[in-house]
């Protein structure tokens, strides 16, 4: 990633990836809705990673998501969005905010890397988002709402039981 890039980690949870990314010297913005996740990660980071900002945002709330994007529009450098295992865990309605967020943040250049299981977990339950999945075709349909975005790469790890897809998305023409 280029110097001066900002990395946005959506739904950072326990913060393992966030801490790893922060250790590389980039500005990192962690986005999560959970107050307990935020408190735990703040304690983990302490004063060791001054380039990390944590934002409590409900990604399913259009106003909150647009407010995040608006606050970040004037930030210099490219934007790199990282979302691991969150897209499929959002309701169909909540997923609709992600392409809009990506479209706005990626005006500065950069890429959105999304990974998600393409096969449901054993014991699939409509009440348990950790068992949900999303096919690559469904992800493509989701991106249709953001005409400025295009899929640049797709890899599916067939060695994992849930067949994890990793998809690279960027703005067209960049």
Give the helix proportion (percent range).
Answer: 25-40%
Rg estimate, integer Å: 16 Å
Tell how many strands the DSSP assignment holds.
7
Written as H for each helix and E for each strand, in order along the chain, the element string is: EHEHEHEHHEHEE
Shape: globular
- Strand proportion, as a percent range, falls in 25-35%
Main sheet strand line-up: 3-2-1-4-5-7-6
Spans with pLDDT under 50 lasting ≥5 residues? none
Largest sheet: 7 strands, mixed
| Spatial gap, N to C terminus | 15 Å
Specify the structural class: alpha/beta
Mean pLDDT: 92
Counting DSSP H or I runs of 4 or more residues, the number of helices is: 6
Quick structural summary:
The chain is of the alpha/beta class.
Features:
globular; 7 strands; seven-stranded mixed sheet; 6 helices; 174 residues; 29% helix; alpha/beta
Explained architecture:
This protein is α/β, with parallel strands linked by helices and 174 residues long. The chain has 6 helices and 7 strands; from the N terminus they run βαβαβαβααβαββ. It has a 7-stranded mixed beta sheet, sandwiched between helices. Strand 1, helix 1 and strand 2 form a beta-alpha-beta unit. Helix 3 runs parallel beside helix 5.
């Amino acid at each position: 990633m280029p110097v001066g890039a900002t990395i946005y980690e959506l739904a950072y949870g326990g913060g393992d990836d966030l801490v790893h990314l922060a250790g590389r010297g980039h500005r990192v913005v962690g986005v999560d809705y959970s107050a307990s996740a935020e408190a735990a990660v703040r304690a983990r980071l302490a004063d060791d990673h001054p380039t990390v900002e944590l934002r409590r945002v409900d990604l399913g709330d259009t106003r909150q998501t647009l407010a995040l994007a608006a606050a970040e529009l004037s930030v210099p450098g490219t934007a790199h969005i990282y979302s691991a295992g969150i897209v499929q865990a959002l309701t169909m309605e909540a997923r609709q905010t992600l392409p809009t967020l990506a479209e706005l943040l990626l005006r500065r250049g950069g890429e959105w890397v999304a990974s998600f299981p393409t096969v449901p977990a054993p014991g699939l339950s409509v009440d348990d988002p950790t068992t949900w999945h999303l096919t690559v075709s469904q992800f493509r349909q989701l991106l249709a709402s953001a005409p400025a975005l295009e899929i640049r790469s797709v890899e599916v790890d067939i060695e994992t039981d849930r067949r994890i897809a990793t998809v690279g998305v960027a703005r067209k023409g960049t």
